[in-house]
Design a protein that fits this description.
Elements: H1 3-72, H2 76-93, H3 102-119, H4 150-163, H5 166-174, H6 180-206, E1 214-220, E2 227-233, E3 240-247, E4 254-257, E5 260-263, E6 266-267, H7 269-286, E7 293-300, E8 308-311, E9 320-323, H8 325-333, H9 341-354
Parallel strand pairs: 3-7, 7-9
Antiparallel strand pairs: 1-2, 2-3, 4-5, 5-6, 8-9
Helix pairs in contact: 1-2, 1-5, 2-3, 3-4, 3-6, 4-6
Length: 359
């Protein structure tokens, strides 16, 4: 074998060695990348596990609080909400459909837990009422009236606080409610708008007290989770007004179209039917004939054609008055023809015993 042949073979062997070294280095690099990916996956798994543990703890806490409420609370509303909360959690975890959409569910579930927490150990909670902001009380110190817009403002604050809690966002995502934080912020904004409108109505109604009207705000409707925005007892002591406050789009006119109330092109007659239903149920709870309880709706923002409308609702024999803010006080002030302070006081006492402050 010649020297040239040996040199050629040596060069080939060296090339193979360089190729093998390169392949070995590439394999080592890939191994390091795989090890790094495995470490990242392990870290992600650990975080997911920790979050799952936190979410499971949150669900367990909701269950515990709800169970304790059902067993120990004297508040009918608290017990009803606790049972509803347990039912929704069970349905979500079982993959079943929940009432309403995900946004409603996330808001409702979080609001229920916060509401239950606030209700557990403070019987007789209430806030100021009356022109001077003082609480109206019956014997024993129980509030008989809330603050105008009080429950709406409280719900907005609860929702806004919950939207910013990461644990709640993860819990609600586990239960199938996506983008819960943003939806809860938006829902809180709507509650704030409603609270401001109710407060504005409350300021208008304060002027009626000098004329002998008795005004209550934010009362619970027996047998329901609904609240009555405002309840008034007439100076003659023969009538009760159930007043609901709405704020509709100021750029759209409210009018009757085909016998139904519309705001612009949107049918809002369902809210007319709702206040009529509230009046009917309040009349039943108070033991009064329907004709003695008047359903009214005051609309802020949207201009009403003629300033006022008279609408009809199913299962309600009378009319539902839909008023702009400028028509509210004059309409009520003109209604009673005489005063009977003793009779009015007796009816107010009855209303206070039956329709309690919400929450």
């Amino acid at each position: 074998m010649t020297d040239k042949s040996l040199e050629a073979r040596l060069r080939i062997a060296q090339q193979h060695a360089h190729t093998a070294d390169a392949e070995r280095a590439e394999a080592v690099a890939r191994l390091h990348e795989a090890q790094a990916a495995l470490e990242r996956a392990n870290a992600r798994a650990a975080r997911v596990h920790a979050e799952a543990v936190n979410v499971q703890a949150a669900v367990a806490e909701v269950r515990r609080l709800s169970t304790v409420t059902i067993e120990a609370s004297l508040r009918v509303q608290a017990v009803e909400q606790a049972r509803d909360t347990l039912a929704v959690i069970d349905r979500c975890l079982a993959g079943e459909a929940t009432p309403g959409d995900g946004a409603w569910g996330s808001v409702w579930l979080h609001g229920n837990w916060k509401w239950l927490t606030s209700q557990m150990s403070t019987p007789g909670r209430g806030v100021g009422a009356g022109r001077a902001g003082r609480a109206a009380l019956v014997a024993g110190g129980r509030p008989v009236s809330g603050r105008a817009g009080g429950s709406a403002a409280a719900r907005a604050a609860e929702l806004r606080g919950g939207a910013r809690r990461g644990l709640w966002r993860r819990l609600l995502a586990l239960l199938g409610f996506q983008s819960a934080g943003g939806r809860m912020e938006a829902e809180a904004g709507r509650w704030d708008i409603g609270a401001a409108a109710e407060q504005e109505t409350g300021r208008l109604l304060a002027g009626l007290e000098a004329a002998g009207w008795h005004v209550r705000h934010d009362l619970a409707l027996p047998g329901s989770r609904a609240n009555l925005d405002h309840v008034l007892v007439s100076p003659c002591g023969t009538a009760v007004v159930v007043l609901d406050t709405k704020r509709w789009h100021r750029g759209r006119t409210t009018q009757l179209l085909g016998g139904r109330v519309h705001c612009g092109g949107e049918d809002r007659h369902g809210q007319i039917e709702a206040v009529a239903s509230y009046a009917r149920r309040a009349a039943a709870a108070l033991g009064m004939p329907d004709g003695s309880v008047w359903p009214l709706l005051v609309v802020h923002g949207s201009p009403i054609v003629g300033g006022r409308l008279q609408a009809r609702a199913p299962q309600w024999d009378g009319v539902v008055h839909v008023l702009g803010p400028g028509w509210l006080v004059p309409t009520l002030a003109a209604a009673p023809r005489q005063r009977d302070p003793q009779r009015a006081a007796a009816l107010v006492g009855h209303v206070d015993r039956v329709l309690r402050a919400y929450g």
